[in-house]
Amino acid sequence: DAKTTQPPSMDCAEGRAANLPCNHSTISGNEYVYWYRQIHSQGPQYIIHGLKNNETNEMASLIITEDRKSSTLILPHATLRDTAVYYCIVRANAGGTSYGKLTFGQGTILTVHP
Amino acid sequence: DGGITQSPKYLFRKEGQNVTLSCEQNLNHDAMYWYRQDPGQGLRLIYYSQIVNDFQKGDIAEGYSVSREKKESFPLTVTSAQKNPTAFYLCASSTGGGRAADTQYFGPGTRLTVL
């Protein structure tokens, strides 16, 4: 799976949009971009995923650049409950010893403040 | 209410004892996974199962064992052979098939502390 690079931390004011960037310059054509978040001492929560088109669901929007080398997760109106570690993961179809596994990096610590 | 449950949330054991962590899902998912997370670290795959009565080792299977006798259950045993068992253990499930778009959903986790 392609490696991802995220800023270690970001701040956002409550009610404002939080834009979390992710660089995945070595992504290949069959790899999806996934976003999860983890609130302290809880299991990771799935947010959204995409291949090449922009995606939106009830939690967030995912914007993937045309060359697919980077993406941005957008939380449109951040709340204090959105404070968490956000993980960007690039994932290919399973094969060999990587069957099904998700590779979590260090992620971005997003702090939403009043 | 569909989801993945793990029990207990906190578990304490003495060194040298085996301990079994529970993971149950009612999402009708074929695939289930066990990950381990250490403080400030990412998740590492211990074992996975794509179908009932079948499971495969992940990246750090030494000192762990699993069973998959029922579709909804995938218990993990931490044996005395595991040298550093204190960690946060996470169970996940997915529809399976190994496709890149196969989303994994996680349980709340069990924090194991070996004294």
* Topology pattern of chain A, helix = H, strand = E: EEEEEEEEE
Radius of gyration of chain A, in Å, reads 14 Å
Taken as a percent bin, the fraction of beta residues of chain A is 35-45%
The rough form of chain A would be described as: globular
How would you summarize the topology of this molecule?
The complex is a heterodimer of chains A (114) and B (115).
Chain A: E1 9-13, E2 18-23, E3 32-38, E4 45-50, E5 55-56, E6 61-64, E7 70-75, E8 84-91, E9 108-113
Parallel strand pairs in A: 1-9
Antiparallel strand pairs in A: 2-7, 3-4, 3-8, 5-6, 6-7, 8-9
Chain B: E1 4-7, E2 10-13, E3 19-25, E4 31-37, E5 43-51, E6 54-57, E7 64-66, E8 76-78, E9 87-94, E10 105-106, E11 110-114
Give an overview of the whole structure.
The complex is a heterodimer of chains A (114) and B (115). Chain A is mainly β and 114 residues long. In chain A, 0% of the residues lie in helices and 44% in strands. Chain A is built from no helices and 9 strands. Chain A has strands at residues 9-13, 18-23, 32-38, 45-50, 55-56, 61-64, 70-75, 84-91, 108-113. In chain A, strands 1-9-8-3-4 form a 5-stranded mixed beta sheet, with no helix packed on it. Chain A has a 4-stranded antiparallel beta sheet with strand order 2-7-6-5, with no helix packed on it. The N and C termini of chain A lie far apart (37 Å). By secondary structure, chain B is an all-beta fold. Chain B has no helices and 11 strands. In chain B, strands 2, 4, 5, 6, 9, 10 and 11 form a 7-stranded mixed beta sheet that branches. Chain B has a 4-stranded antiparallel beta sheet with strand order 1-3-8-7, with no helix packed on it. The model of chain B has no long low-confidence stretch (mean pLDDT 92). The chains are: A mainly beta (114), B mainly beta (115). Chains A and B meet through β4 of A and β4, β5, β9 and β10 of B.
